[in-house]
Amino acid sequence: MHKVQLIIKLLLQLGIIIVITYIGTEIQKIFHLPLAGSIVGLFLFYLLLQFKIVPL
């Protein structure tokens, strides 16, 4: 892969992680969960990996 393609792929992956963490934070706020939003986001990311929605 070219250097530009690698950078784009890295930025896309980072963007996916940021969006999932943001969604976890919003879920935590809506449901007033006693966990940090980032932990909810990590759990959500784990579920997405387990169900193969997000490829490893």
Automatic annotation (TrEMBL):
<dbReference type="Pfam" id="PF03788">
    <property type="entry name" value="LrgA"/>
</dbReference>
<feature type="transmembrane region" description="Helical">
    <location>
        <begin position="30"/>
        <end position="49"/>
    </location>
</feature>
<keyword id="KW-0378">Hydrolase</keyword>
<feature type="transmembrane region" description="Helical">
    <location>
        <begin position="7"/>
        <end position="24"/>
    </location>
</feature>
<dbReference type="GO" id="GO:0016787">
    <property type="term" value="F:hydrolase activity"/>
</dbReference>
<protein>
    <submittedName>
        <fullName>Holin-like murein hydrolase modulator CidA</fullName>
    </submittedName>
</protein>
<keyword id="KW-0472">Membrane</keyword>
<dbReference type="GO" id="GO:0005886">
    <property type="term" value="C:plasma membrane"/>
</dbReference>
<keyword id="KW-1133">Transmembrane helix</keyword>
<keyword id="KW-1003">Cell membrane</keyword>
<dbReference type="InterPro" id="IPR005538">
    <property type="entry name" value="LrgA/CidA"/>
</dbReference>
<keyword id="KW-0812">Transmembrane</keyword>
<dbReference type="GO" id="GO:0031640">
    <property type="term" value="P:killing of cells of another organism"/>
</dbReference>
<keyword id="KW-0204">Cytolysis</keyword>
